[in-house]
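As a next step, we paired sequence with structure tokens, yielding the entry below.
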Amino acid sequence: MSVVRRLPVVKDLTLVTAGAMTANVAGYLLQLFASRWLGVAGYSSFASLLAVQMLCAVPALALQNVIAREVVRGAPAAAARTLALRCAGWVTAAALILVPLVSAVLKVGFAASAGAMCTAPLLVLLAGEQGIVQGRSRFRELATVLGGAAILRIAPALIVLACGFGPAPALWAGAAGTALAVAAARWIADGTVADRGRTTGEARTFDGDADSTSLIPDATDRTPTGTPPARTASAAPQGTEAWGLGVAAVFRAVQVQAALTALSAADLLVSRIVLDENDAGRYALGAIAAKIAFWLPQAVGVVLYPKMAQPQHSARAMRSALAVLVGIGAVTVAGAAVAAPLAPLFAGRDYAPIQGLLWLFALEGALLAVLQVTLLSAIAADRTAPAAITWIGLAAGVAVMLTCAHSVLSLIVIATVTAAVTTLVITGVALRTARAAGESPSRVPDLGASGT
């Protein structure tokens, strides 16, 4: 690929990374200020409800990938939004059932539980709009949606917390902000559709040619330059199923992401069960370090995904990703250890007992980052079996946590060991499978040294 073609990809990845980082920083600020303003006990329930909220919104992650893939192939925005509405309906039904259960299990108020759950279907709708923008290869707009939506979601909650209100009003304010974010994202997505006709003659087009760049390109979806896609809006029915935009497709894509999300959130949820209010709040603050270590290197998987999708390069791409992740993880763990004394200064003296454990939280997050990329490689090769190993590791880890964890130290040690064992097993299996695939004839085209 020429330098001219490389530059837009680098620019797009930079923009999307900036948008994602804005979203992550906004989330961390919410957690940090909430830990100070709500106190140890209040923050424990607030953080646990946020974790449950994200678990319920896991289908949103899969939905965005499915919609983006099918929009690239020519699916209209109307069909994509129909699928988003259907998925949001399923998530709404699940949320209604979970509200009383979450309230009872986590020992939180019904209003707070309902405020957390009502955001989940809104996040699904938001993901649908993000998928449309991503599928149009409008990454500047995607970055705007990622960062702007996070600000719209989190700013109202922060304002409510700053005014002295508790978790329930803050969660409801966040839900209202999310609804506003959905409306703004739809407006931006409609703008990309309106601009489509003015960009069809440019280097980056939407007709599936080699210059069309996707955030996570799929080697099997690409066609030679100038070749029309297999399906076009004029040649196929407009129904969602005709475009591959069915709920079943989302369910198939969600299994891997659900396994990873559940494993990354399990210890925080268990902390509400096995620890007292104060220790659970301290554990929730420590979990911020784990989240930072987990999300910090996510761009590694995005950049190397195209190579992972090529069997002849998959093993090498995985080794490169693992090397980079190990390096970033080591720096993150060391940074957490060095910066640990600052935690009580920002969050309050009540959190001083966990400052010596922050490096351990960061280690857990770094291990989960490796697991994330390993599972991403499985998705790239259409091998979702490793998700089963993740579920087994999750079940075993939770069982040990519930029976043996009685302090912050014991809980984070068990969580870290669980992440380490699960990651090592899945990584070993994935590397062997990738090597075997690389030695076998493949119908997947070689996209070149850059993978694009």
